[in-house]
Amino acid sequence: MAVEHPMQSSTIVDVLEKVLDKGVVIAGDIRVGIADVELLTIKIRLIVASVDKAKEIGMDWWETDPYLSSKANENTQALEEENKLLKDRLDALESQVNTNNRITTESKSEG
Amino acid sequence: MVKKVYLYGLVPTSEYEESVLPEKRGFDDEEVIHALPMGEIAAILCKLDSNAYTESFIEEKMNNDLEWLQKKAFHHHEVLMLLNKLYTVIPLSFCTIYNNEDSLITSISSQMDQLTESISRIYGKEEWNVKVFSNDEILKKKVSDSNSTIEAKRKEISSLPPGKQFFEKKKLDQLVERELEKEREQLCVHIHDELTAYAVQADVKKNWDKKATGRKENMSWNSVYLLEQNEVNRFLEEVKIQEQKMGELGLQMEATGPWPAYHFSRLGQMKK
């Protein structure tokens, strides 16, 4: 189904995209420097991915020794692989954001 | 102790007086969400403990406590979805917080004209999002099979000696890649144009990385539309038509809505 209702199907991506949008109708007294929304979403997915994977594997897999259970071992490897990829991506984005933040902070302090 | 104020959204006071705001716990799970009418506009807010919700606390939580961020962002959004069902609402950004009620009143009063203008712009309308995802393998095959430039290049290569063919094939791959991007962009622009015909306003947003969407397909278009309520069904029909047409080219569409007018209620301010 191509058409979805935001409340039933909203992913964290959709919601963060909306609620953290940079444009501001009216500003509050508290000004929070937000990291890049995409970066935050990737970080959240990093957590969610681990939890989902853990569920997929079965609730009991970590109770057995992962090194003795080949199934758990395979899945751990897949998980580690995915985490590594996500972390690499994160590092790249983080260094980008640091540069951007500096610019934002400078322009803020001028205003 | 003076309490801080968490502001969710702004609604017309007349609409607020007509429909009761259901009782709901606020941002801190303790205080109740309520309305503060200020002339034509009423603020929907909840109180917050001033000592607990400092600037540094929120910044720290937002950037480093992702479970907190996720939970609170959904809370903020859930309240706005509720408001959007009941009223014409200007949704505010996550964590729009004032030091006290007086400060909120001063801020809103000073921008009353723009806010009422925003309200009238979104009154009776819905905000919808359309994302297009592309399975590049399918489109690549189409492009590779039907593009005349590629076809000519391929013929040319087959007549070359084997050693030269290797490098020329590499170049051909790059050409296919470029043509694929061009084709994908054109298809998305076409979809966007067709959909914009039903909208009062439309905008193109940034595409998200695969790592953020968690999908196999690339996001190749991300756009937002402001629709008159009576145009929504026709708009969604058009989405279906486009989806059927584009499906065989490997493009999938995803329409979501109605969203609180996060995007279009702030446009007036952005143009300043």
TrEMBL record, chain A:
InterPro entries associated with the record: Gas-vesicle_GvpA-like, GvpA, GvpA-like_CS
Coiled-coil region list: 69-96
Keywords: Coiled coil, Gas vesicle
Pfam families, A to Z: Gas_vesicle (PF00741)
GO CC terms of this entry: gas vesicle; vesicle membrane
Domain of life: Bacteria
Location of the protein in the cell: Gas vesicle
GO molecular function terms listed in the Swiss-Prot or TrEMBL record: structural molecule activity
UniProt-listed PROSITE patterns: GAS_VESICLE_A_1, GAS_VESICLE_A_2
UniProt family annotation: Belongs to the gas vesicle GvpA family.
Protein's recorded name: Gas vesicle protein
Organism field: Virgibacillus halodenitrificans (Bacillus halodenitrificans)
